Amino acid sequence: MNKNLLLVFAVAFGITLIGPVPAGSAELAAAAVVLTGVIVGFSAHRALSRRDDLVEEVAVELNKLRRVYHLGKNLGGERHRQWFTDLHGHLYGYLTSFDKKDFSQYQLTNGAFRKFSYHLYQIPSLDTEKERVLYRELLESAGIVAGARQRIQELWASSMSASLWNLLLSMAALSTLAVRMSMGPSDRNVAALVIAALGCGLVYLRQADDLSSMGGSDLSKRYVENIARLELSRHE
Questions:
Q1: Residues 174-225: tens digit of each pLDDT
Q2: Rounded distance between C-alpha atoms, residue 221 and residue 202, angstroms
Q3: Which of 29, 58, 64, 87 would disulfide-bridge 178, Cβ 3.0–4.6 Å?
Q4: Residue 172 CB: number of other CB atoms within 10 A?
Q5: Nearest to 102 by CA among 211, 21, 196
Q6: What sign has the CA pseudo-torsion 25, 30, 31, 37?
Q7: What's the predicted TM-score (pTM) here?
């Protein structure tokens, strides 16, 4: 079991064992616990949705990068061979910039991405309708990549605010006090479990809201592994 959860249970039982047992209103205590639980549950749902959105945006970015590469490859005929060679180098450099980086350092790859995206506009003249169609599709895909990068950075930075955490902690503390004041002599174990449930909810929410717990190096590895897929398609 997680050490934080063990600590939560120890504290919960400690609270119920310390001091005399007062007479209080179980109904009012239950209302406080339910209200706190609803807010914690809603916050946890938002945090988990944020995680899913981040993984989805990473998948979109990598998918569209491969799309840009393949379109560039089709454009890279005799006249555009050097342009495509440089495009390959810039894309390789961008993906390599994730090597040995935690995903929390995502913004450090902005420079490599700017070099790659700027090069897309340096293509020589487009003389045929096929070239113009391919280039339009390439720019559309590049635009989706840029949008995904923006959303990734926003999602990573949009953790719960300190004021919301203070509110949740205050509500949990008051709910704990209400449970403690309302329990009878035979209610110690039940009261301790209710208090522990509140604590476990906060621990889980903290872990869900912390995107670094997803395994930042694993997310970065997906970018580096994308290099092998591009190299394979290059030689096909």
A1: 888 888 777 766 677 888 888 888 888 998 999 899 888 776 678 888 998 8
A2: 30
A3: 29
A4: 21
A5: 211
A6: positive
A7: 0.81
